[in-house]
Amino acid sequence: MSFFRDLISMISSYIQFEDADTKESLINNSAINIDGDHEISYKEAAAYNTSPATITITGESFKEFQYFTGIGVCKIIGTNLKIIYIPTTFTGNSQISPFVSCPLLETLGIFGTINLHSPNPFGTLGGSWILKNVIVFGHPSDIIKSYVGDYGWFGLTYHEQGKFYDKNNQEINSITIEDNNFTISKGILMKCKSINTIHGNSKLVAIQQRAFENSVLSSIDGLDNLTSIATNAFIGTNLTTFTANNVTSAIIGAFGNCTNLESVYLSKVTTLSPATLGDYGAFSGCTSLVNVNIPNLTTIGKRSFHNCTNLVTLPSTNITSVGEKAFYNCVKLETLDTSNITTIGAWAFMACTKFDSKNFNNVTSIGIRAFYSSGLTEVEFKNANFTTTPSDTDTNQNYGVFHNCTSLTKIDAPNLINIGKRTFYGCTELVNANIGWNNITNIKDGAFADCSKLSLNDWIIPDSLIELGVSAFKNSNITGSVTIPSTSNLTTLGSECFRNTKITSFDLQNPNITTLNGGMLNECQELRTINIPYIITASQYSLGSSNVYKRPKYRVTINAPSLIKLSIGACYYGNSILNADNLEEVGEAAFFTSTVLLHIKINKLKKIGSGAQMSINSETLTYNNNSVDFAN
Q1: Phi-psi map region of 191: left, alpha, beta (phi>0 left; psi -120 to 50 alpha)
Q2: What pairs with residue 515 in β-bridges?
Q3: pTM
Q4: Three-state SS for 107?
Q5: Distance, first Cα to last Cα, the chain
Q6: What is the pLDDT of residues 324-377, one digit of tens each?
Q7: Measured between alpha carbons, how far is residue 506 from residues 501, 528, 530 in Å?
Q8: E strand or H helix at 10
Q9: What is the DSSP string of 466-533?
Q10: Strand intervals (E) in 355-477
């Protein structure tokens, strides 16, 4: 009987391997098979403590690795290995990625909290990992207590079928935090497809970067002691509500693209910031977000609510800063307390077609396109002295602060003196622009273009104005006279700056301006007089019209005693009396289809371009497309 007992005892001391090839690999490893027989005992497995170690496995299964309880830093080489159960002592380091040489590994078994130490234990981030099952023989919380690389279980969750299972092969969907002052580590459940519920149990204090990014997480509760949420923590999850009223950290891109998120309660948070990775705002892309309760919020960073298409209001009264694209495309946003805001970033309220706030009296800085296509009707910037001018090198300078605000009827900003490019472009209902007209310094390209109802009559341009840009008032409702005094500091006028306006007279007394740029008075149908005593050159369409249907209604008297050159098409479709005793050169088609009575000295003329079609002293001289050069 003792023989049989000894035989049974001996057999039971040997590990029973599931895979014969795996057993053979270990038998051939003299560092493991110490006695050199054809078996591996439990004692031999537990005694193997070489570190760092490399174990080569030729089989597909190595569940028995769990008995190697003395192992430390180790690299597994298994080109055919598909399943392995690891002891809790198994680890890697910064130089050794434990499973990088296991390209077919699908299933991993753990018996407690593991710490692999290696930044990427399963290979380089984004590699062709196919790990799809992790069997947890202990408590489900071992999943998030473990360290399995800088990107957590991404080696598992990268796989489209990757999930966690318990020892009974049941899918694990919920984890309850059991340790006090617990921190959920970086990227631990990124892209996880099985854990949908986390119970914080009032023990969770911090959630690190990308912890649940793009996972199926739909519920997290028991966050009474949570104080910190790191960058991108919940991006792309299925959360519907989130309450954590002791969080004091800035929310940095944490909830971007949570399309099911409806309600948020963060009573101590003061700052929302963008993430540098992926450029997500705190709640950008949360298309279902309706209820936001962040009463102490002061700083709304870049893209914070970008594309929150169901957000109607934000009941925060202490907001001082709104960053770039903060509310971009919040098409249902109606109200926001703006009374304390000092800074508004570029595109901040762009495409907020229902947004209509009035009090911006503390604003000192506004970025380009801040209110582009918003629903503003009347706005006040009474105490503000801000600049609306983008950088001349800005690639987005085609859009101004209030560009295309088609509901805006009034702006009260008496200290606004620098009007940037296209600031009010397309504000078709703007009537009252109470800005610093008497001290204005810059009116840049297209600043008031297409302001078809703008009330600006008999404007005497102040000496403070140093720039009047291209198309500055094109298609606007400027009426009556425009006077540029001799003391003006302007040195040039932008082309088409008064095109298709309703001015009746234009008086340019500034001797520093000697050229009328192209189309400057083009299509001004109400014009009656033009006084340009110092103009030497009149460019194309500057004194006429490019549109036969918008030629002057009245005979325009043009007094231009210094005029020497009429450029090509200068008086195209004109209707005028031109007094220009020093005129020397008439460009091609200068008077094309015009009714122009010239008072000039014929002996001064040196060149007439082809098709000039001139009428001198009522005598029609047509040159039949042949130019005449009197000098020759």
Answers
A1: left
A2: 537
A3: 0.85
A4: strand
A5: 138
A6: 999 999 999 999 999 999 999 999 999 999 999 999 999 988 988 999 999 999
A7: 11, 9, 5
A8: helix 2-12
A9: -EE-TTTTTT--EEEEEEE-TT-------TTTTTT-EEEEEEE--TT--EE-TTTTTT-TT--EEE-T
A10: 365-366, 378-380, 410-413, 418-419, 432-435, 442-443, 456-460, 467-468
